[in-house]
Amino acid sequence: MPLNKKDILDIASLSVEEIQLILDTADSMREISERPIKKVPVLRGKTVVLFFYEPSTRTRLSFDLAAKRLSADSLAISGDMSSLVKGETLLDTARNIEAMRPDVVVLRHAFSGAPHFLAARLKASVINAGDGTHAHPSQALLDMLTVRQHRGSLAGLKIAIVGDIAHSRVARSNCEGFSKMGAQVVLAGPPTMMPKGIENLGARVTADIEAAVADADVIMMLRIQKERQKRFMISTEREYARHFGLNSQRVSLAKKDVLIMHPGPLNRGVEIAPEVADGPHSIILDQVTNGLAVRMALLYLVLGGGRNADTD
Ligand code: CP
């Protein structure tokens, strides 16, 4: 079954069936990275442009590697190395990129809505690699894939997402995705970092981390996004760690087989204690491995591939 979507802009615009198709396709992509020769020819002749206006390690590298594993040509440009610094607008830059006939543009941008703006104006597919505080759909898809891999299904799980919810596109996309797939999401964090109306995404909201993690099947910790805060919203990081950091004692309140997640980058000793980040419940590096599989699936599907990818 094809995806029939030109662009991947957010989780809100994906149906449950479309999410399942992406996750099933990612499942079949994962095995390619275990082969001695980690490359298949399914996107030979296709071109993927990675356009990153904000810093990234995981998302940028995995989209680049995903394109290469599928034999597409990929090229990357960052905001500070582009003609943006000479005053060129995002639209003019995108039009110039399109004049070179790419098939997919992967965009990370500080402005919420920037990928939607380009998608409405470009023939190439646009994949949102994170826009402002709005959405990070490929992150939510890789997180859903990782939980599904460990638990078989998302339905009925209690998932606590803890931290700077106000500035987190990951929290928004995950809240939409996990809720859509039948999980119960609890958002926890300081009241100064909890946006009004966030419960409309289908989550319960609390400022009590102990209540949030009690009996949780999954705990996802988020870093404080200082780069998006107009003023620092907590007194000290030490104070934050004491009230909202995940330590072993708080992990013990959750289910015995709780999964600990974090989208990265980690601030060890602030939102997550090192022994928890590296402990037996942590699936943080599985998230990274699955990020590659999900991004391979997204590139494959927006370019017309079907479910059970023919990847021989
Ligand atoms: N999770 C995430 O988006 O990480 P990067 O900013 O390193 O891409």
Can you give a write-up of this model?
The chain is of the alpha/beta class. The protein is 35% helix and 15% strand. It is built from 11 helices and 9 strands. It has helices at 16-30, 58-69, 90-98, 114-119, 137-151, 169-180, 209-213, 237-244, 248-251, 274-277, 284-302, and strands at 47-52, 73-78, 104-109, 125-131, 158-162, 184-188, 203-206, 218-221, 259-261. The strands form 2 sheets. It has a 5-stranded parallel sheet. Strands 2-1-3-4 form a 4-stranded parallel sheet. β5, α6 (169-180) and β6 (184-188) form a beta-alpha-beta unit. α5 (137-151) crosses α6 and α5 packs across α11 (284-302). It is globular and about 55 Å long. The mean pLDDT is 94. Phosphoric acid mono(formamide)ester binds at residues 56-60, 130, 139, 263-265.
How would you summarize what this structure contains?
The protein is about 35% helix and about 15% strand. It has helices spanning about 15-30, 60-70, 90-100, 115-120, 135-150, 170-180, 210-215, 235-245, 250, 275, 285-300; strands at about 45-50, 75-80, 105-110, 125-130, 160, 185-190, 205, 220, 260.
Key descriptive features of the protein:
five-stranded parallel beta sheet; alpha/beta; four-stranded parallel beta sheet; 312 residues
